[in-house]
Amino acid sequence: MSRPLGVTLIALGYGCLGFLCLLGWVATSQLAVASDLIRLAGDFLFILAIIYLALAYGMLKGRAWSFYIFVFMEAINFLLAFSSKNLLGLAISGLLLWYFYSRRAWFGVG
To answer: Which pLDDT score, from 0 to 100, does residue 4 have?
Structure first.
């Protein structure tokens, strides 16, 4: 089975997010005067970078764990968009959840 194009595009997007988070981590670590809050934000960016890059890899390889992590993260985004009445975020998260659920065979999820 060939990888769906939408999964590839989403994985590339997550890979770009991971790369940008790494750049932000490097930028915060190079600041001469940095408060504890800035250092904490930089550490958070590093953790997000690892998660995004691992998730992108898992999506490209069709790993089941990447499906579950993505669905969990998008469900949280959906609930946050719903609670803040963000209609665009609600629509995007809903569409991503629907798309991934319809492509669950790529990930080996029944």
So the answer is: 93
The secondary structure of residue 104, as a DSSP letter, is T
Residues of the chain with pLDDT below 50 are none
Inter-axis angle of helices 5-29 and 87-102, nearest 10: 130
Spatial distance between the Cα atoms of 60 and 6, rounded to a whole number of angstroms: 11
Return the CA Rg of the chain.
16
Is residue 27 domain-resident?
yes
Count structural domains, the chain: 1
Dihedral of the alpha carbons of 89, 91, 94, 95, in degrees to the nearest 10 = -120
Supply the pTM of this predicted model.
0.85
Domain that holds residue 85: 5-102
In a domain, residue 110? The reply is no
